[in-house]
Design a protein that fits this description.
Distance between the termini: 25 Å
Number of domains: 1
Shape: elongated
Helix content: over 70%
Order of helices and strands: HHHHHH
Structural class: mainly alpha
Number of helices: 6
Strand content: under 5%
Length: 162
């Protein structure tokens, strides 16, 4: 049974990472796409939040079951890894989700200003806000948090130092 639980845990982690790979690629492409309409089009391939939440639930659920079955629940590394995963989740939602919301809002405003024939200064201001949002620090920080945090969790799982 242990092997099946570990298998399901690793399979759910791989599914979660695959879905997030799409998220990361879109975030970095949005950073480099200067056209607001094409930039908004990059949202199309994003996996739905329900799928991401289900996959995260599977990762946490199978990890907890593995912790009970193996049993690792008495070891500190497991609880540190879980706390770290929850912290990463919160940071990703705050900064990754914040980036998507910022891009969507500023791109939409720039498109609407151009379509409505707003004054040139207003159009330029909306476009500047979009360009500033696009060039923001969010993708860099989110990528560093995700990769660094997952590397620490993997280290905890492999070497069980505590």
């Amino acid at each position: 049974m242990e092997r099946w639980v570990l298998y399901l845990h690793l399979a759910s982690v791989l599914g979660f990472m695959l879905a997030h790979g799409v998220q990361v690629q879109v975030m970095w492409r949005q950073r480099g796409e200067p056209d607001p309409e094409r930039n908004l089009g990059l949202f199309d391939p994003l996996p739905g939040l329900l799928l991401l939440r289900l996959l995260l639930g599977a990762v946490i659920g199978t990890g907890l079951v593995a912790g009970i079955v193996v049993p690792w629940w008495r070891q500190w590394w497991m609880w540190i890894a879980l706390a770290l995963l929850l912290a990463i989740t919160w940071l990703m939602r705050r900064y990754g989700g914040g980036y998507y919301e910022l891009i969507q809002r500023t791109a939409t405003e720039a498109i609407e200003a151009a379509k409505e024939g707003a004054e040139a200064s207003d159009q330029a201001a909306k476009r500047a806000a979009f360009d500033a949002a696009r060039g923001g620090w969010h993708p860099i920080v989110v990528s560093a948090i995700g990769l660094g945090g997952l590397a620490i969790i993997l280290w905890l799982m492999m070497f069980k130092p505590f």
